[in-house]
Design brief:
Chain B: This is Density-regulated protein DRP1. Chain B: It comes from Leucogyrophana mollusca. The complex is a heterodimer of chains A (184) and B (199). Chain A folds into two domains: 81 residues, Sulfate adenylyltransferase, CATH 3.10.400.20; 89 residues, Sulfate adenylyltransferase (Roll), CATH 3.10.400.20. Chain A is 30% helix and 29% strand. A five-stranded antiparallel beta sheet of chain A has the order 1-2-3-4-5. Chain A has a five-stranded mixed beta sheet with strand order 6-8-9-10-7. The two termini of chain A are 17 Å apart. Chain B has two domains: 72 residues, no CATH class; 98 residues, 2-Layer Sandwich (Translation Initiation Factor Eif1). Chain B contains seven helices and five strands, in the order H-H-H-H-E-E-H-E-E-H-E-H. The radius of gyration of chain B is 26 Å and the shape is elongated. The relative contact order of chain B is 0.09. Classes of the chains: A alpha+beta (184), B alpha+beta (199). Chains A and B meet through helix 3, helix 4 and helix 5 of A and helix 4 of B.
């Protein structure tokens, strides 16, 4: 999503959304992530106004104090930025990829099933299976912090069965152009 | 990074991630970046304990653990290649930067009135908008960023301030830092007589 993203040319406007819209964003975040209201309050205090940064191709980034916190495509699910995820790693369900896949991920590739199902990878056990379309934090074998954030294309059980093709579509990864943007 | 929020009373503390100053990645990912040697250098100086954690012999051993030797060798080769490429790229960019010119144009608007256009500042990573604001404040005139006929962005300052701008660049004050004076050139642009008559 952020393979080519230049703040100078790709941002079309920054506006604070209405307070009712902010309320609905807050509710959406609380329902979509595994996050307590108190923690969200600390990330994004109620008194601070969220700024909606409109970008090309219907991508919106939300910032507080000029620091990007969430982004969204159309009315889709709300993703945290990778820096936010690093600080609060438990807010998204985790999947792991093996070591061989890291460099492809960092080059912007989507995550293929074999990298998730192999010995170094990690998928949640059957009783905690994720459906298709879930937002996940992609962790890497032997590393502490997440390397990317993506959305599952197949359910995790299905991934184990099919074991071929794209398993997770990566929205943002370490070193992409959103990562390069520290303040907006 | 979280300096402004750490003083709130908080239920869950954010995890402090140690980021590399060179490649901005968390230090454990430096090995996949394009500047591993420089990252290593920086880390060994800045935080030796972290350095030992990631680059000591046993750490390297455990890392290789799950990969076959060939794959590891290939990965290393790739990293080296990537590094060389990034270096070459940075060098080329630097060269280009050093070769690029800053043009300070004094444009005659009327017989006694001038504007000063400054071209090519963006090559030196200067925010044009900020530069315009800075110059406007300095000279107490209007200054703006406009797109000229060639489609390039330039800073236009009201009044004849070409020499003063050059002085500012020489003293490298404020936002105009980092522009080598040798690359600056002051030119004058007079209105053509024919154009004036025609209009």
């Amino acid at each position: 999503m952020f393979k080519k993203f230049q703040p100078s040319t790709d941002i079309s406007g920054q506006t604070p959304p209405k307070s009712s819209v902010q309320r609905s964003i807050r509710a959406a975040v609380l329902s979509q992530w595994k996050i307590e209201p108190e923690t969200l309050e600390q990330i994004w205090p109620k008194k601070e106004s969220l700024i909606h940064v409109k970008c090309r191709e219907h991508i919106s980034i939300y910032t507080v104090h000029n620091e990007p916190l969430f982004f969204q495509h159309f009315d889709g699910p709300i993703y945290p930025t990778l820096r936010l995820l690093h600080k609060y790693p438990y807010i998204l369900p985790k999947v792991g990829v093996d070591r061989g896949a890291i460099r492809f991920l960092l080059a912007g590739a989507h995550m293929m099933c074999p990298g998730l199902t192999s010995a170094g990878g990690y998928l949640p056990p059957p009783d905690g299976a994720l459906p298709a379309g879930a937002i996940v934090a992609v962790h890497a074998e032997g590393k502490e912090h997440a390397v990317a954030i993506g959305v599952t294309k197949l359910g995790t059980e299905e991934m184990k069965k099919v074991n071929k093709g794209v398993g997770i579509e990566i929205a943002t990864h370490l070193g992409d152009d959103l990562w390069a943007v520290q303040t907006l | 990074m979280c300096s402004n929020r750490c003083d709130y009373p908080q239920p869950t503390q954010p995890v402090h991630v140690f980021y590399c100053k060179v490649c901005t990645f968390p230090v454990e990912y430096c090995e996949f970046g394009s500047s591993l040697t420089r990252c290593k250098e920086w880390l060994s100086e800045d935080n030796p304990t972290m350095f030992d954690k990631f680059y000591s012999d046993e750490a390297l051993q455990t890392k290789i653990g799950t990969l076959s030797l060939e794959a590891q060798a290939k990965l290393e080769k790739d990293t080296a290649k990537k590094e060389a490429k990034a270096e070459a790229k940075a060098e080329a960019a630097q060269k280009k930067k050093m070769a690029s010119q800053v043009l300070i144009k004094r444009i005659e608007r009327n017989k006694r009135k001038h504007v000063t256009a400054i071209l090519g500042l963006e090559a030196f990573d200067i925010d044009l908008k900020k530069a315009a604001k800075f110059l406007a404040q300095k000279f107490a005139t209007g200054a703006s960023v406009t797109r000229n006929a060639q489609g390039a962005e330039e800073v236009v300052v009201q009044g004849d301030v070409a020499d003063e701008v050059l002085e500012l660049i020489e003293s490298s004050s404020g936002v105009l830092k980092g522009v080598p004076v040798a690359n600056c050139e002051v030119v004058e642009e007079k209105k053509k007589k024919g154009a004036e008559g025609g209009a």
